[in-house]
Amino acid sequence: ANPLGYLSNVDEVMEKCEIQAKVTHNTIEGIISSQAIALMAHCFIHNMIDKEEIPSYLEKILKASRFDHAFTSQWQGKVGEQGLESAHAAVQTVATSNSLSEILKKCVEYSGDTDTVATMAVGAASCCKEIKKDLPEGLYWGLENGPYGRDYLISLDEKLNLLLNNRG
User: Fold this and answer.
1) CB-based contacts of 62: which residues, under 8 Å, 6+ apart?
2) What three-state secondary structure class fits 79?
3) What DSSP character marks residue 19?
4) How far is residue 144's CA from residue 51's CA, in Å, rounded to a whole number?
5) Of 80, 103, 75, 91, which is closest to residue 32 (Cα–Cα)?
6) What's the CA gap between 5 and 39, in Å, rounded?
7) What is d(CA 41, CA 44) in angstroms, rounded to the nearest whole number?
8) Any alpha helices (H) in 25-99, and if so which ranges?
9) Taking the CB of residue 98, how many other CB atoms lie within 10 A of it?
10) Which of 89, 102, 123, 133 could disulfide-link 75, Cβ–Cβ 3.0 to 4.6 Å?
11) pLDDT at 93 (0 to 100)
12) Cα separation of 34 and 7, whole Å?
């Protein structure tokens, strides 16, 4: 869902996330999770609000779409397999952290579905100017580099940034 944050407006993000989520997680919670994460990235990419405001912003936007979830409540404990739990933990982790390494540590400490939480949180936080980008180089350059590996991901990132810069 994070790349959908590059879209130019909130309505478009919401619409495309619903389509994207229905492919693999066709539940209200799956759709809301996708929308929450993409909206978080959207806010950072388009410099809309500070990271601490993300939970309240998401509650407001998603409540307007008739879904009420308390993203402002602090996440504690193990993250279950439900996408909404992962999204909630990711939102809270980003809102209360100052660096990518801190985010990654918190995600692992939750236990449970930590890889999903970390993917959501680090992906969105990577777009946030308030978050220090301090992950070790080995995490980037140690990625496998098959047909859809490191170089492919770098190319996608460059294309998304070019798309954003050309819209503006």
Assistant:
1) 32, 35, 36, 68, 69, 71
2) strand
3) H
4) 31
5) 91
6) 6
7) 5
8) 28-45, 54-64, 83-95
9) 13
10) 89
11) 96
12) 14
| Residue (of 102, 50, 99, 94) closest to 75 by Cα position | 94
Lookup: tokens for 88: 């909630």
The Cα-based distances of 76 to 79, 88, 130, 137 in angstroms read: 8, 10, 23, 30
pLDDT score of 75: 84
Q: How far is CA 143 from CA 3, 120, 133, in A?
A: 19, 18, 17
Tokens found for residue 157: 């990132």
CB atoms within 10 A of CB 79: 21
- Would you state the structure tokens that stand for residue 144, as one six-digit string? 């496998």
Contact 67/29 with Cβ under 8 angstroms?
A: no
> Phi then psi for 131, rounded to 5 degrees?
-95, 125
Interatomic CA distance for residues 77 and 66, integer angstroms = 27
* Residue carrying the six token digits 């590059």: 6
Query: Per-residue confidence at 97, pLDDT binned at 50, 70, 90?
Result: very high
Which amino acid, one-letter code, is at 50?
A: D
- Minimal CA–CA distance to 88: which of 105, 66, 110? 110
pTM for this entry: 0.88
CA trace torsion 109, 112, 116, 122 (10° rounding): -10
Tokens 């979830």 — which residue?
69
